[in-house]
Write a sequence for this structure.
């Protein structure tokens, strides 16, 4: 007895047992008998398949009188596995079942089987998607878990047979036909699982026309899913495999990743026309998740290049989008007495662990709390509110948002529709600031330069208005919600700084700084006071005051003078800073030049005072007045301002000018003009003891200056 091409091994053994008038179990016992025991692993079910080892296959070949190479060509699972028996060596077999373990199969056409074998014995065959229809005898070969399959007559539904012919033509003409059918099957399967709209007429009519008389309606709706959706699946696969459609979708996106399918109206129009359902355009426009959205998103992302990786990404169907197996959904077969079928227990989605589901629910609690507090889910990635990495969690979900299960995506979308917007979370947060500002302070008034907003927010709004034509369509929609449409964006003016308000703010910081430090002299260009760049602002005001290039407003100059009369002195700011330092050091003390100002705790201030004494004649009248305020007058010392009456031997100064009094610090020495000799102060404070005479230097080593004396040795 010859097998049918593509037949299941167990189906062939069942027909072989019927040929010998045996039961299937008796035949299995005969071909796997080892020491009087049946060497078969697994349970026998109507939808099972069996794998045999070499010894058992030899016995089957001898029973049916067909060479093994013929059986190998006809039976796909003939040599697929070499099972080991339960009782050691010898012939053995292993029974398997389930859609994960056994390839897709279905019942063989009864008419074709009877014509081929001459017997009315059912058979089962491995079937490809395009082999589900027997066009000659008009049968749909339906797979039903737990049974040997069900051939469904298609006499009243010719569109299924026409779809099968188009399916075969698609596979012959398009290299991506098989992958396109998988994507289309996922799309129609997702539509099948949703509540049918009232506009849907074809599926209910087809469901009723193909339902057997004794089949329960709810049971048949689950079992006939692939049959009822087959014409739409083939039509959608032909459309998705079209390269011109893919190119039009990419061009229509405008370079933006789609947020919802409504952004690709041409694609939706062609889908609705191909499926003969005009109402689909409106219904699919709001879809932001699902297999069709994932395909459109991948199409725009890959830009339809010819690389193999892009081709694979375009036709990848994630496990969350695949139709659930019938064994998970199909209720028990109705009883013969008409009792309603018992529904199967709800099973979790395959490919998703319970641990991952619990983690999602726990994270969703934090997301709800954040949304309640901030009004959005545009969470920065580094955010860790309540010591939970909410920002990282949402960032990971945005990365794989097209692969999320439908119930998780729906939960996040119900909480915040823009949780996975195709633009940055920073943009979304700034938009919320603009929306809140408009709600609190009224319209934004772009034509007047956003006068009520802060400078940073107004500048951001103006920048978005300049880029309005290039914004994402959904971003333009969000801007419309805050009163900025295309016309308003075109008429927008840049946000101008309020110079008066900024000057008042700067003066307030200057007052605070002067009250804290006593003056404004210590403000440098890098000074930042309470977040305000006071140093840069004050440097600009000093530059305007000195150069006159940009006259300083009189009111601002008076305000700065009231804060610090010497905020912009005509001399170097370093002198002013040293003056304030010396003033603070001399507060409550009497300055005594005769002891070298040694009464001051600040030696730097003492040195600076001696330098001022040395250059007192060169100071301006205002500087002398300031020094007089702290006790430095032309007669501060007993010998006048800075007279030096000590000999070079007493002071350690080598200028040698003893014919006339020299300025303190040796004005004849250029180095001492800039830095007074510390030895002079030390000598006046405590004169040195007489030193023994030194040996004169050698004549050839003596150096003379212009006065004929040795030069001063600066330390």
């Amino acid at each position: 007895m010859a097998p049918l091409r593509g037949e299941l091994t167990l189906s062939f053994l069942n027909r072989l047992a019927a040929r010998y008038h045996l039961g299937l179990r008796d035949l299995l016992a005969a071909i796997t008998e080892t020491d009087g025991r049946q060497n078969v692993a697994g349970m026998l079910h109507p939808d099972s398949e069996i794998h045999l080892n070499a010894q058992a296959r030899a016995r089957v070949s001898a029973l049916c009188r067909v060479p093994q190479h013929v059986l190998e060509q006809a039976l796909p699972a003939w040599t697929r596995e070499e099972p080991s028996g339960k009782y050691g060596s010898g012939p053995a077999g292993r029974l398997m079942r389930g859609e994960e373990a056994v390839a897709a199969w279905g019942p063989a056409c009864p008419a074709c089987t009877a014509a081929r074998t001459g017997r009315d014995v059912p058979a089962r065959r491995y079937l490809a998607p395009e082999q589900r229809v027997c066009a000659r005898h008009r049968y749909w070969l339906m797979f039903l878990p737990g049974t040997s399959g069900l051939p469904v007559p298609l006499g009243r539904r010719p569109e299924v047979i026409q779809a099968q012919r188009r399916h075969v033509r698609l596979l012959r003409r398009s290299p991506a036909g098989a992958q396109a059918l998988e994507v289309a099957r996922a799309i129609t399967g997702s539509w099948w699982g949703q509540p049918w709209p009232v506009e849907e007429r074809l599926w209910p009519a087809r469901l009723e026309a193909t339902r057997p008389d004794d089949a329960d309606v709810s049971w048949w709706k689950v079992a006939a899913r692939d049959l009822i959706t087959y014409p739409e699946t083939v039509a959608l696969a032909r459309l998705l495999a079209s390269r011109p459609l893919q190119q039009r979708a990419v061009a229509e996106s405008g370079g933006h990743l789609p947020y919802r399918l409504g952004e690709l109206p041409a694609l939706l129009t062609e889908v609705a026309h191909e499926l003969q359902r005009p109402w689909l355009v409106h219904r699919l426009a709001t879809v932001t998740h699902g297999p069709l959205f994932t395909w459109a998103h991948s199409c725009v992302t890959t830009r339809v290049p010819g690389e193999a990786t892009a081709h694979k990404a375009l036709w990848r169907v994630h496990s969350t989008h695949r139709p659930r197996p019938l064994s998970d959904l199909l209720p028990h077969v109705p009883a013969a007495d008409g009792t309603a079928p018992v529904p199967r227990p709800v099973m979790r989605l395959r490919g998703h662990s319970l641990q991952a589901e619990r983690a999602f629910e726990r994270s969703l609690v934090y997301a709800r709390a954040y949304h309640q507090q901030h009004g959005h889910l545009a969470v920065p990635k580094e955010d860790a509110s309540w010591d939970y990495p909410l920002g990282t969690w949402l960032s990971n979900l945005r990365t794989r948002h097209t692969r999320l299960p439908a119930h998780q995506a729906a939960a996040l979308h119900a909480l915040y529709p823009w949780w996975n917007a195709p633009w940055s979370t920073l943009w979304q947060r700034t938009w919320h600031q603009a929306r809140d500002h408009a709600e609190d302070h009224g319209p934004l008034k772009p034509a007047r330069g956003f006068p009520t907003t802060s400078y940073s927010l107004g500048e951001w709004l103006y920048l978005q208005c300049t880029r309005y034509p290039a914004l994402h369509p959904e971003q333009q929609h969000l801007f419309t919600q805050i009163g900025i449409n295309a016309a308003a964006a075109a008429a927008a003016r840049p946000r101008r700084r309020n110079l008066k308000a900024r000057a008042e703010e700067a003066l307030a910081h200057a007052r605070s700084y002067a009250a804290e430090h006593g003056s404004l002299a210590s403000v440098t260009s890098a000074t930042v006071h309470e977040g305000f760049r006071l140093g840069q602002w004050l440097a600009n005001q000093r530059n305007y005051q000195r150069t006159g290039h940009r006259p300083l407003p009189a009111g601002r100059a008076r305000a700065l003078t009231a804060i610090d009369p010497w905020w912009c002195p005509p001399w170097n700011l370093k002198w002013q800073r040293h003056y304030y330092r010396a003033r603070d050091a001399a507060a409550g003390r009497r300055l005594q030049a005769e002891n070298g100002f040694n009464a001051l705790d600040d030696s730097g201030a003492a040195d600076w005072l001696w330098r001022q004494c040395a250059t007192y004649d060169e100071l301006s009248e205002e500087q002398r007045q300031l020094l007089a305020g702290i006790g430095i007058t032309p007669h501060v010392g007993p010998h006048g301002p800075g007279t030096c009456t000590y000999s070079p031997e007493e002071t350690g100064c080598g200028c040698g000018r003893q014919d006339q009094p020299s300025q303190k610090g040796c004005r004849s020495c250029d180095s001492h003009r800039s830095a007074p000799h510390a030895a002079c102060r030390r000598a006046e404070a405590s004169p040195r003891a007489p030193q023994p005479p030194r040996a004169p230097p050698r004549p050839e080593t003596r150096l003379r200056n212009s006065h004929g004396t040795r030069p001063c040795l600066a330390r």
Remarks:
- Residues 637-690, 694-715 have pLDDT under 50 and may be disordered.
- DSSP finds 32 helices and twelve strands in the chain.
